[in-house]
Design goal:
Number of helices: 11
Distance between the termini: 15 Å
Helix content: 40-55%
Strand content: 5-15%
Structural class: alpha/beta
Length: 265
């Protein structure tokens, strides 16, 4: 009953064939721990040939509006849980397919590319439509690019971003390297931490969250960023549990729809 309720909420607003596909896809992915259509199709135990089942699932997976529809339903359901101090961790991941030359848009990944910036802004805007200004965004290196954090300032979104030492910040009336400012800052509070083996610069965080002169206030900022690693662990676990990087879908649309289905399980 719980599985039916979950898939019903997730596929709300879709036509009957699409709702059936969502239920079958989520069940197959969970039952066989795989995103291969030939494997998930076996979990359905249909009386027709497996090839027919795989073809049907592939056709339904190619529905153009499926990804947006599932994401909107997920966000609508989860937005009620978001409070002012809830962490919204933004951690773009990738699927490594070094030999799948037939896949659409397969390319080398570069931080700061126009396409990456556009996708990140689109993701933040989509979530913010449901959460409004609630929550605190947590972003790793690269999130301190002006093209990314300026829209957040304009929409009054709170954020904690890992700051790169080579960035210039306005200090007084001149631009100064972030690393230089960090090294000159007085340390009001100190804790014992494990130093990164090859670490060459202090951990610097850029935030617009109000910070008071108290250990608790400072700890919230630091803990917010450190908890981001739990998201990385979750993504790594998902990749391993569902063998995501073994996905065999040549169409980018199919890949998008499969990924949102897998993460919705």
């Amino acid at each position: 009953m719980l599985f039916r309720e979950k898939t019903g909420e997730l596929s709300s607003g879709l036509c009957k064939p699409a709702r059936r596909f969502v239920a079958e896809a989520l069940y197959g992915i969970q039952a066989r721990q795989s995103v291969l259509l030939s494997v998930t199709g076996r979990a359905l135990n249909e009386t027709i040939r497996l090839k027919k089942t795989e073809t049907r699932l592939s056709n339904k997976l190619g529905r153009a509006s499926l990804e947006d529809h599932l994401l909107e339903n997920l966000l609508r359901k989860g937005s009620g849980r978001i409070k002012a101090d809830t962490l919204l961790v933004l951690d773009p991941s990738d699927i490594a397919k070094p030999y799948a030359w037939g896949m659409e848009y397969l390319t080398h990944l570069r931080d700061g590319s126009t396409g990456e910036n556009t996708e990140i802004i689109r993701a933040v805007d989509m979530v913010s439509r449901h959460t409004e200004t609630r929550g605190t965004w947590v972003v790793d290196r690269g999130g301190d690019r002006r093209k990314l954090y300026e829209p957040s300032l304009g929409h009054k979104l709170r954020f904690v971003i890992r700051l790169v030492g080579s960035r210039h910040l306005e200090c007084g009336r001149r631009l100064v390297l972030a690393r230089e400012i960090a090294l000159r800052c007085p340390m009001l509070y100190a804790d014992q931490v494990v130093r990164e083996k090859d670490g060459k610069e202090p951990l610097m965080l850029l935030t617009n969250v109000e910070v008071k002169r108290s250990r608790r206030s400072c700890s919230f900022i630091l803990d917010s960023y450190l908890r981001r690693w739990q998201t990385e662990d979750t993504i790594r676990c998902m990749k391993q549990s569902y063998d995501l990087e073994n996905v065999r879908l040549l169409s980018y649309l199919l890949l998008q729809n499969m990924m949102v289905s897998a993460f919705a399980t």
